Amino acid sequence: MEEEALRLFTQMEAEASFVPCETTMASVLPVCARSKEFAGKELMHKHAHGHMDVARRIFAMVDLPDIVSWNTLITGCVVQGHVADAFQLVRQMQQQEEDGVAGVVPNAITLMTLLPGCAILAASARGKEVHMYAVRHVLDTDVAVESALVDMYAKCGWLALLRAVFDRLPRWNTITWNVLVMAYGMHGLGGEAMALFNRMTASGEANPNEVTFIAALVACSHSGMVERGL
What we know:
The chain is mostly helical. Helices cover 73% and strands 0% of the residues. It has helices at residues 2-16, 22-34, 37-48, 52-60, 67-79, 83-95, 108-120, 124-136, 143-156, 159-168, 174-186, 190-203, 210-222, 226-229.
C-alpha cells in the first residue's frame, strides 16, 4: 500500500504539475521513511531539481544517508545556484558521525557536480580546492573529473592550469578541444588558439564540429585576426 501511495503521489506531480502542500508532505514523508530506500531517493532526486525544501525534508528522514543521497542533494544545490550550500553539504557528509559510522567520502560524481558550480560563479578558489581534493584522493585520473576541471579552469580564466589538466588527459575528444580553443580565443590569445585548432585538425584524434569553428572564429575576432577568420 505504501509503495502504491508513493507511486500515486509521483504520478499526481507529473501529470498535474502538482506542488505538494504541508499537509500532503506530512503524509508522504513518513511513508518515505518506512518504505524501501530507493523510493525516498527517487522522490529526493525529483524534487532536488525544483523544490529543494521538499528534497531536504525527504533527506532528513533518511537514517544514514549514503553517497547517492548526498550527491542528489548536492546536485540540487548546484543546479539552483546555491554553490556555497553545496560545499557546506560536502563538509557535513564527511563529518557525519552516528552510532560509530564514519562520514561519507566524496566520490568522482561529487566532484563532477561541484566543478560546474565553481565555473558558473567563476569561483576559482573553490575549484582549486576541489582539484586538490581530487589529487589527494587519486580522483584526478578519472576522465570525467579531468574534463570537468578543464571546463572549470577555462571559465575561470586560469589558462595555465587548464592546459596542465588538458595535457594530462589520456585522450582528447571534440568537447575538450573546443573548450581549450575557445578559452584561449576568449582571452585574446588568438595565435595560440589557432595553433591548437590546427593541431586538433591535423591529429585526427577528434573531428571538428560547428562549435569548433565558432571557437576558431571567436579567437580570430578577439585577437584582431579578421583575415585569418575569413
